[in-house]
Automatic annotation (TrEMBL):
This is Amino acid transporter. The keyword Protein biosynthesis does not apply. Keywords: Cell membrane, Membrane, Transmembrane, Transmembrane helix. Its main location: membrane. The chain crosses the membrane at residues 35-59, 65-86, 106-127, 147-168, 180-200, 220-242, 254-278, 298-320, 355-379, 391-408, 420-438, 444-465. It comes from Aquitalea magnusonii. Pfam families: AA_permease_2 (PF13520). One of its GO terms (cellular component) is plasma membrane. InterPro entries: AA/rel_permease1, APC_superfamily. Residues 1-22 are annotated as: Disordered.
Length: 484
């Protein structure tokens, strides 16, 4: 059963009754800044500025800043549904438990499985992005050639994966504090460079961006899809519900902060970078390390190198943040009998879901090595895997948004404005979700929606099989998930 007692989240289940044998997550351990660090770390704010803003520009052009503004509004509506549940209950099951309480266990499992796909597949993609950023940094430092041998990429992939495993295995507080330090320092340097650029010119207003010069509605819609991806993972603080101090207060705050904070930086960075690269060669969408290039133009070359190091570390933090989030979903599934019981154990002294962490790192590593060994460019594989992950996030957010008013109705607290907020949230989330499937993009991206549907189908098939083969156990899980 998922409930709360004096602000402390508790997770009980039939599989969790022998706590001394299997171990559980550490209670009352993480404070608000550490919860924010988990979400912002998975978002990968500074890494997103360096890589995702140019990607959004490639589609939205002068409407890049507006695409980020629209994405922010959509996510704030979505956050209402998430924080509604987060103020009532907390568990490592997060959105899985929320959707179950709102629209029932089957949809809850689909939501939880979608979120697990998002975290796990996203981790494999972020691993590829991490390796790419470290290679860029190594080239800048003159440590490797412009086109290093394949063995270098493969070895670096293994090293990054093992380093992330060591952090996630050891301590969740170590993970979040490392992330917080990296992001704060890198964001500070990024803001200094951006403001220095804005203050360096004679005009502080870029008329072509304000007038949305050359921007068509279709471009803006596609740009919003990519901008939305820049924020995915903002909800991941919810998976730390069992480990947070005063979770019913801290987690909702962490979710909102993890949208508003990155949004301000993304909008500022997109406006400044688009303006800075007008008429430049290469353009923003072709620049390798645009923040470093801009810093050198301003005579802040040292800042540029440090920023690139921070971007690489931001990607690294996003990788183990994804592993942390995915491991806690696996942990919850296992302790409720949906996955093997071994993955529902926490380390006796570290109090981390160490078996789940190890399994997920190994899976991400195998996927990364296969892509790289087959000659797929690191950023291409990052894009493919991250796109599949985005579908998982979107579906999970939609299901929680649908479940929120149903949850309130059962409690007798439903008001017309709640229905309106939920409806607007679903409609706004539908823009990137439907846009990902129709019209289908070209090349490999045309197959990715079907890959995601196949993965969702596998999870649903397992749930149906469990319902047929072990109905008594499933009824217990359903009763547990319906507890308020």
């Amino acid at each position: 059963m998922i409930h709360s007692t004096q602000g402390e989240a508790v997770l009980d289940s039939p599989a969790a009754q022998t706590e001394s044998q299997s171990g559980t997550l550490r209670r009352n351990y993480l404070r608000l800044p550490e919860l924010v660090a988990q979400s912002i770390g998975l978002v990968g704010v500074s890494g997103g500025v360096g890589i995702l803003v140019p990607a959004v520009f490639a589609t939205a052009g002068n409407g890049t800043w507006l695409a980020y503004a629209f994405a922010t509004v959509a996510l704030l509506f979505s956050a209402w549904s998430i924080t509604l549940f987060a103020r009532s209950a907390a568990s490592p099951g997060a959105l899985y438990a929320y959707a179950s309480q709102g629209i029932g266990p089957i949809w809850g499992v689909i939501c939880g499985w979608s979120l697990l796909i998002a975290y796990a597949v996203g981790a494999a993609g972020i691993l590829q992005g991490t390796v790419n950023t470290f290679l860029v940094l190594a080239r800048e430092l003159g440590l490797i050639a412009a086109h290093p041998p394949l063995a270098v990429s493969l070895l670096l992939t293994v090293v990054v994966a093992l380093a992330a495993w060591a952090i996630a295995y050891r301590d969740i507080r170590l993970s979040t504090r490392f992330t917080l330090l990296v992001e704060l320092l890198t964001i500070l340097l990024i803001v200094v460079v951006l403001i220095a650029y804005l203050l360096s010119g004679s005009s502080h207003v870029d008329q072509s961006q304000i007038a949305l010069e050359g921007v068509k509605p279709e471009q803006l819609r596609l740009g919003m899809m990519l901008a939305f991806f820049s924020f995915t993972g903002f909800e991941s603080a919810t998976v730390l519900g069992a480990e947070a101090q005063s979770p019913l207060k801290a987690i909702p705050r962490a979710v909102i902060i993890s949208i508003v904070g990155p949004a301000l930086l993304f909008i500022l960075a997109s406006y400044a970078l688009v303006a800075a690269f007008h008429g430049q060669h290469p353009g923003l969408d072709q620049a390798d390390g645009p923040l470093s290039i801009l810093a050198h133009r301003l005579g802040l070359g040292g800042f540029g190198l440090i920023i690139d190091a921070g971007v690489a570390l931001s990607f690294f933090a996003a990788f183990f943040s994804s592993i942390n989030a995915a491991a806690r979903i696996v942990y919850t599934f296992a302790r409720q009998g949906l996955l093997h019981e071994a993955t529902g154990k926490a380390h006796a002294s570290n109090a981390t879901p160490h078996i789940a962490v190890t399994l997920l790192v190994v899976l991400a590593l195998i996927v990364g090595l296969i892509f790289t060994a087959n000659g797929t460019a690191l950023l291409d594989s990052y894009g493919y895997l991250s796109s599949v992950a985005t579908y998982g996030y979107l579906l999970a957010y939609v299901l929680v948004a649908v479940g929120a008013p149903l949850y309130l109705r059962r409690q007798g607290r439903l008001k017309p404005q709640h229905v309106l907020i939920s409806l607007v949230s679903v409609l706004l989330l539908a823009i990137p979700l439907v846009g990902s499937f129709y019209p289908l993009p070209s090349g490999v991206y045309a197959w990715l929606p079907y890959v995601f549907l196949l993965l969702v189908g596998l999870g649903l098939a397992w749930f149906v099989a469990l319902k047929l083969l072990a109905p008594a156990r499933l009824r217990g899980i359903e009763e547990e998930l319906q507890q308020e």
